[in-house]
Structures are given as C-alpha cells and as structure tokens.
C-alpha cells in the first residue's frame, strides 16, 4: 500500500514513501506524488530497491596525537586555554581535510592526565607545572570536535610509566608521592611495578574511569609495559706496562622488582621470573579487554606493540626481542582475542634490510585465528625527519598494505606516527605529506572497518526525505530508523551522468543540501553506521522532475 504524506509551506515535496511511518527494512520500490505540488516543479522520491550504489571504502586511517617529545600539540606549554583549544581544533580540521577517520589521543603519559580526574594530576605538558588546571578539559574538546567532524577518538594510555623526567616536580596526587612503594626507579625514569596487584588494579580503574565518563570510541595502549632494557657502561684498565689498555663493559640492568617477585611471584609458585612478568602483563591485557566491554560494549581495545614479537619470527628477521625485553607476549594477545585491533609498529622502509616491512606484516596476519583487525603503525615521521625517508615512502607503504589484502577478508588500515608529521612541510616545493595523501591515497573517503563481534545486529535503514523549497534547492533530511546508536551517516549521490559521490557525515547532522541543476542529482542513497562500524541497509531514493 502506498502512503501519502503532505508537508505544507513548501513549493514541492519528495519523500520516501512509508519511511516516516517506520516501514520494515528491505521494502520494495514505493513512491508518492505529493498533493498540491505544481507538476512542472515537483520532485518525486521513489523508494528504489533496484539501484545498487558503489560499495563504501573501508579503511582505518588513524594518527597518534601526543604532546610528548617534540609533540604535535600544544606548540608550547603554558599557552592559554583558548590558544591550546584553537591549535587542537586546527589539527582536527586538518585531519578531516587529509582524510583521516580516527585520532589516537594521548591522555596518560606517565602517571599524569590530559583530562579532568581525581585519580591523577594534570600533565605538565599543558601548563609547564604538573597538577595545574589548564582551564579546560582537552579530552572533552577532542571528543566533541572530532565527533563533529566524523572522526573517531581512541584514548591512548601509557599504563605503567610513572615519570619521564625527574626534573618535573610531582604533584601531591602523583603516584610517585601517593604510592612510592609501587614505584621503581629504572635508569633515569620511574615505573609502576606491574607485579604489584594493587597497582595493576589502580591502573585498570583509571582506564575504566575514562571509558565510563567520556564518549570515546576506543582504548589504546602502545609498546610500554615493562620498560625497554637500560644498560650501564663502565671502562676498566687491564694489562700491564705497554700492554695496558682500556676495555668497555656494557651490562644490562634488570628491572628492580625483587621485592614484588618474592612477595607475589614466588608466593604464587612461579619458578621463572620472566614468565611471571609476562603473566602480569597478560593478566592486565585480558582484564582490560573484559572490563572495557563490560562498561561499554562498543568501545574498541587496541594495542600497538613493537613490530617484532621475537627474533626469528618470521625466519630471517632479527632485532629486539620484545617477548624477553618488555615481557610483551603480543602474539598471545592476538591469538586469544584480547584486543579488537593490533597495530604492530612496522617502523622500517619497504626496501630496508631483511625485508622487515613486508615480512612482518605477512607474519602477523598468520597469527590471527580470531580475525581481529591488523592495522600497522607507520613511521610517518621518517618522511619528514632529518635525514628524511623518500617522500613517497609512506604512500608506497599504504599501497603495499592495500595490495596485500586485496581479495581477502582482512581489513585495510594503518596508523601514522604522528599527526604532526602529516602537517609538517617536507620541503619548500613538495608541501606536506598530508597534502600528498589527501590528493592521492585518501582521495576517496573511507569508513573504519566494522567490529561486528562487539555488538548485535546493525541499525535499521534510516528515515530519509528530500524537500525542495525554492524550486532548485534540494534538502535531504535524515533520521534514525530505530533506537540503535548512530555514529555516522553515509550519503551517496548520483548525477545524471551516473557519477557517484560519497559524503560521510557525523550523526548530529540531520540535513544536507544536495547539488542540483539541469543535470544534477537523480539518486540519493543513505545508510546509518553504528558505533562499531556496522552499516544499515541503504535507503535509496530516486528523484524525478
């Protein structure tokens, strides 16, 4: 049955028949000519199930954003709240223009916070003084402004790092002052001992606090669990007479967790301290994954480990052993499904020694029985550093990753280290790397790949109608088709020459002016995308004069 709907006050109206009354998903072709509309000016929107718009590109296009170590933002500590927010919003505008769809925002560097919380002091990266309120909440701003631009926000934590710089005066509620018994000095830094159960629980609580209070899309950890090995170098004179000479002695420093090993490791009947250390991190990762999804099932958990799990995996690959050095059994986490995506740091050029970039990407994909997403981290800073990588290196890596997954069920994706590298000039004639990606690699917009294992069924097709109010101007109006949380709308329009254009809009957008001319829009397709990337069936409208 056709349903007639009349809107007053417009010169002509086009609607999807029955949609505004909530007709069932997958309905066939329906249409209506509004009553009272001038025949020579009316537009008719027919619900059309015979048109199949192009498949939407799916690719995770992320970038880390951090104030650490010559960071991306703020340009300097101590700027006013207004200046810091302007800089942050400028970066997000640029991220959207380039074609990124996710930001990995550093919220906890070393026992501090870039968000308002009683569980940790404000970061000195904002004001120059730890514990000093910057006058605004950076994470609130990032979530609000990124979502308004259709960009996901993943909150990035360094869970066990307590202090990077001994020169920063710690605030009263910093972990080094509140719980000095949890903290171990190692080299020039201080670390929270992962072997202490209460310390692990406190860190898990800080992460879940962010998940519960902020509308983030993901939780992200990088490669810092136990610290990378420090060494101590000393020189010793040996021999006699003219045979006397100096030798250099380099000794690895072991992490100073003897007290917790005795108190907890041996008490729990562990006989090997390295195995116990890996168990501490395994427990933390597994609990984090479980608790995040209990708090909010749609929030993704991602980890970016060192690119090499162990030397010899795959054969021919040598290098740092993160399994032994940072006690990160990252292969186990992937195999057990204790994360939703992994971003192994493949910080080598494609043609570097041992063919590491290709070989490691291929190897990681063989270690993924749960079918989680693998989106490598790219050393984008290398393309703008000194000495710089070739300017084409990062676009080449992106193309190589896409080619390796073509025809498979694996998702496309990568994360740039870092956002600042995409906007920095690589040379007076070449412009920024972001410009290069915007013009080529990211020419077409992309949705992040779905994580269907996190939620149930996808949202219902959206309610859509097209109105004309001044004869030529077409306005698309969109509403959700059910109660599912909508994160994005995807609008695809086709012109009279059958060329398609895709626009991805944040969920807060409910109206869009469509292009219209004598050869303008003739097909409009709209789909809803939920918080885990699942897309609804498309509502397709055929416009007729």
Explain the layout of strands and helices.
Blueprint: E1 12-15, E2 44-47, E3 59-65, H1 81-98, E4 102-108, H2 124-127, H3 138-148, E5 152-157, E6 161-163, H4 175-178, E7 183-186, E8 189-192, H5 197-213, E9 218-221, E10 230-238, E11 245-253, H6 258-265, H7 273-295, E12 300-303, H8 322-325, H9 330-336, E13 341-342, H10 356-365, E14 373-374, E15 377-378, H11 393-405, E16 412-416, H12 419-423, H13 433-439, E17 463-468, E18 474-479, E19 486-495, E20 500-506, E21 511-514, E22 521-530, E23 539-544
Parallel strand pairs: 3-4, 3-16, 4-5, 5-9, 9-12, 12-13, 13-14, 15-16
Antiparallel strand pairs: 1-17, 2-23, 6-8, 7-8, 10-11, 17-18, 18-21, 19-20, 19-22, 22-23
Question: Could you explain the architecture of this structure?
Answer:
Helices cover 24% and strands 23% of the residues. The strands form five sheets. The chain has a nine-stranded parallel sheet. Strands 2-23-22-19-20 form a five-stranded antiparallel sheet, with no helix packed on it. Strand 10 (230-238) and strand 11 (245-253) form a beta hairpin. The longest helix is centred in the middle third of the chain and has 23 residues, at 273-295. By secondary structure, it is α/β, with parallel strands linked by helices. It has helices spanning 81-98, 124-127, 138-148, 175-178, 197-213, 258-265, 273-295, 322-325, 330-336, 356-365, 393-405, 419-423, 433-439; strands spanning 12-15, 44-47, 59-65, 102-108, 152-157, 161-163, 183-186, 189-192, 218-221, 230-238, 245-253, 300-303, 341-342, 373-374, 377-378, 412-416, 463-468, 474-479, 486-495, 500-506, 511-514, 521-530, 539-544. It folds into two domains: 12-56 and 454-544, Immunoglobulin-like, CATH 2.60.40.10; 59-229 and 275-449, Glycosidases (TIM Barrel, Alpha-Beta Barrel), CATH 3.20.20. It has 13 helices and 23 strands. Helix 1 (81-98) packs parallel to helix 3 (138-148), helix 1 runs parallel beside helix 13 (433-439) and helix 5 (197-213) runs parallel beside helix 7 (273-295). The radius of gyration is 27 Å and the shape is globular.
């Amino acid at each position: 049955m056709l349903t007639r709907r009349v809107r007053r006050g417009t010169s002509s109206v086009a609607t999807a028949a029955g949609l505004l009354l909530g007709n069932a998903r997958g309905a066939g072709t329906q249409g209506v000519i509004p009553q009272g509309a001038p025949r020579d000016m009316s537009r008719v929107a027919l619900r059309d199930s015979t048109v199949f718009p192009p498949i939407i590109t799916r690719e995770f296009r992320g970038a880390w954003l951090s104030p650490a170590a010559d960071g991306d933002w703020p340009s300097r500590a101590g700027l006013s709240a207004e200046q810091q927010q302007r800089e942050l919003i400028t970066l997000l505008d640029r991220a959207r223009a380039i074609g990124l769809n996710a930001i990995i925002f550093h919220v906890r560097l070393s026992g501090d916070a870039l968000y308002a919380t009683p569980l940790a002091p404000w970061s000195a990266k904002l004001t120059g003084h730890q514990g000093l309120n910057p006058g605004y909440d950076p994470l609130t701003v990032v979530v609000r402004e990124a979502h308004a631009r259709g960009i996901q926000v993943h909150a990035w934590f360094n869970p066990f790092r307590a202090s990077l710089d001994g020169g920063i005066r710690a605030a009263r509620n910093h972990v080094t002052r509140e719980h000095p018994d949890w903290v171990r000095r190692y080299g020039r830094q201080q670390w929270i001992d992962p072997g202490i159960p209460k310390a692990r629980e406190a860190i898990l609580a800080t992460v879940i606090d962010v998940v519960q209070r902020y509308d983030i899309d993901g939780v992200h950890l990088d490669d810092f669990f136990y610290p990378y090995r420090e060494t101590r170098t000393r020189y010793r004179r040996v021999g006699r007479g003219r045979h006397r000479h100096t030798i250099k002695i380099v000794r690895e420093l072991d992490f100073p967790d003897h007290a917790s090993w005795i108190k907890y490791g041996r008490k729990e009947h562990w006989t090997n301290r390295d195995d116990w250390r890996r168990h501490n991190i395994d427990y933390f990762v597994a609990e984090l994954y479980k608790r995040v999804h209990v708090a909010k099932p749609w929030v993704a958990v991602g980890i970016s480990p060192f690119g090499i799990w162990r030397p010899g995996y795959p054969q021919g690959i040598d290098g740092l052993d993160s399994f032994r050095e940072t006690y990160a059994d990252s292969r186990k986490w992937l195999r057990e499904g204790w994360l939703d995506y992994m971003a192994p740091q493949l910080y080598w050029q494609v043609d570097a020694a041992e063919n590491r970039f290709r070989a490691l990407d291929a190897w990681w994909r063989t270690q993924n029985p749960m079918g989680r997403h693998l989106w490598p981290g790219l050393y984008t800073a290398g393309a703008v550093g000194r000495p710089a990588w070739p300017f084409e290196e990062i676009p080449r890596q992106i193309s190589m990753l896409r080619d390796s997954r073509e025809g498979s069920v694996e998702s496309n994706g990568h994360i740039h280290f870092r956002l600042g590298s995409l906007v920095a000039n690589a040379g007076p004639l070449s412009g920024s790397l972001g410009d290069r990606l915007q013009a080529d690699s990211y020419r077409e917009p992309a949705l992040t790949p779905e994580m269907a294992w996190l939620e149930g069924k996808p949202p219902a097709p959206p309610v859509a109608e097209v109105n004309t109010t001044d004869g030529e101007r077409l306005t698309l109006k969109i509403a959700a088709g059910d109660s599912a949380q909508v994160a994005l709308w995807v609008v695809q329009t086709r012109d009279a020459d059958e060329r398609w254009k895709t626009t991805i809009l944040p969920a807060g957008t409910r109206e869009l002016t469509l292009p219209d001319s004598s050869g303008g829009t003739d097909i409009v397709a709209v789909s809803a995308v939920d918080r885990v990337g699942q897309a609804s069936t498309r509502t397709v409208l055929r416009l007729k004069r």
